[in-house]
Design brief:
Elements (H helix, E strand, L loop, with lengths): L20 H4 L1 H18 L5 H5 L6 H50 L35 H16 L25 H21 L10 E3 L16 H4 L7 H10 L5 H9 L3 E3 L5 H9 L3 H21 L8 H26 L4 H25 L3 H25 L12 H13 L14 H11 L1
Parallel strand pairs: 1-2
Helix pairs in contact: 2-13, 2-14, 4-6, 4-12, 4-13, 4-14, 4-15, 6-11, 6-15, 13-14
Length: about 450
């Protein structure tokens, strides 16, 4: 996904080539310009000047055909936009439901006997033990604007020194989470691990790699930099693993469509593994590789997660929460699976072939019809070439926009940043390790007495 700034009139957007539909449309546009030049050269011969005057008497003939081609292009572009936004909505729905499920089951687990000694006393039973320590409103992180400025400067330096996802300044210097106030149980770690694994496997299958190649998974480390959403922002060392060293060659391959081959796409995805909390064990990897089909892999991870929660609920690992309330967890997992299958529908169901074929045919015919229209009704040669160029650039560019957006998980660099989504999902899961609310800790007896004395 390409990030850009909304500069005045979009001037800064003109220089971007990789990922641009306008530059991909230059090939057919230049072809139409060559056709116009050849037609002008041939029809300007003395023996053919009378034929030129009688080719088209009225523009309505070609105008009807161009109007029909315009409707085809608009329909395809509109459907491609719908596919793109539906894919984005489905992925966010999937992540939202699975995150809600993890939050729900972790909340239940914190009410089990494992956390009995660490769990705060209920407020209605002992109000003095749950006095909020920070009563005044104040900035939690920055005391002054100078502190904020220093933080931003340090972050900018860190970003400049980042090479191949390795930083000389640790992210812990910028943002750290040292508020873990509980001892996480094995069940809590396993729930977060399987939730992260389920999301990673689901997103892996949406990228639609080669069937004979397994998508790589790696261990997640909290505090690592966010994966770039734009592939052009990766370092040159990283890009060499899946793209040529020369950026000019990369642009030429993009314009000719060579970067869209299944092999190139799989190499690009292999350089960006999805990261899983706790990593992936050898037994999990063998089982996932033995299962045939992307849907089966996701179903297997969902089964592992729901079977674990069901078993722990029967053994008391979720506290005294009634079973009907626990069933909401399974409903959230099911809702997330619905979002996954809606996303998979777009990945595995291409844009209908008949519509794509007839649109491509008429775009090809426009390369001959538009130059013919310019010859008959524009007398100035320079003006005819300019009008022909921009008219064809508009038609072919709209066609390329539709082709870019119809596969939102595949067409890099305009694809959805699934690696970034997975990193965000993992960080959200890591929050479950922080335990109970920091203001709900029991105060020591001497502090409680001081609070009571101050009240009196």
């Amino acid at each position: 996904m390409i990030l850009y700034n909304n500069s005045p009139f979009g001037i800064t957007l003109l220089a971007r080539v990789h990922g641009s539909a306008a530059f991909r449309a230059l090939g057919p546009t230049l072809f139409a310009t060559i056709v116009l030049s050849l037609m002008m050269f041939v029809l300007n011969q003395p023996q053919l000047q009378s034929i030129e005057q009688n080719i088209i008497i009225h523009p309505y003939g070609i105008g009807c055909l161009i109007a029909a081609s315009s409707f085809l292009l608009i329909f395809r572009a509109n459907f491609s936009y719908n596919r793109y936004w539906e894919a984005c909505t489905s992925v966010h729905l999937m992540r939202s439901k699975w995150l809600d499920a993890a939050i729900l089951v972790c909340t239940f687990h914190y009410q089990s006997s494992f956390y009995e000694k660490q769990r705060p006393v209920a407020a209605h039973e002992n109000p003095e033990g749950n006095i909020r320590r920070n009563r005044e409103t104040k900035l939690v992180r920055y005391k002054t604007m100078s502190d904020m400025k220093n933080h931003i400067d340090r972050y900018e330096k860190m970003e400049k020194r980042r090479e191949s996802a390795v930083m000389t300044i640790s992210c812990d210097e910028v943002c750290s989470l040292d508020n873990y106030n509980v001892n996480p149980s094995h069940l809590l770690k396993e729930i977060l691990h399987l939730s992260s694994l389920l999301s990673a496997i689901a997103l892996c299958t949406l990228r639609n790699d080669l069937e004979c190649v397994e998508s790589p998974l790696a261990k997640f480390k909290s505090g690592e930099p966010w994966p770039p959403v734009d592939p052009d922002t990766y370092s040159d060392h990283f890009r060499e693993t899946f793209l040529p060293k020369s950026r000019v060659l990369v642009v030429l391959q993009y314009l000719t469509g060579q970067t869209r081959t299944p092999k190139m796409r799989t190499l690009y995805n292999a350089a960006r593994p999805f990261r899983v909390i706790g990593g992936v064990s050898d037994s999990e990897a063998r089982m996932l590789q033995a299962v045939r089909g992307d849907e089966a892999k996701v179903a297997l991870c969902s089964f592992w997660l729901q079977e674990l929660v069901t078993r722990e609920q029967l053994e008391g690992g979720l506290g005294k929460v009634p079973p009907p309330i626990v069933s909401r967890y399974h409903q959230f997992i099911s809702d997330g699976m619905l979002g996954y299958h809606q996303s998979a529908k777009i990945t595995y169901t291409p844009f209908p072939f008949p519509h794509a074929q007839i649109t491509s045919i008429f775009v090809f015919f426009l390369c001959f019809l538009v130059p013919l229209l310019m010859i008959c009704f524009v007398e100035n040669v320079t003006v005819a070439i300019i009008l022909n160029f921009f008219t064809m650039l508009c038609f072919v560019g709209l066609h390329e926009v539709a082709r870019e957006l119809e596969q939102p998980f595949i067409n890099s660099p305009n694809d959805l940043p699934l690696n970034y989504y997975q990193a965000q999902f993992n960080e959200a899961l890591q929050v479950m390790f922080t335990g109970f609310h920091p203001d709900c800790k029991d105060l020591p007896e001497d502090e409680v007495s001081k609070e009571n004395i101050s009240k009196d």
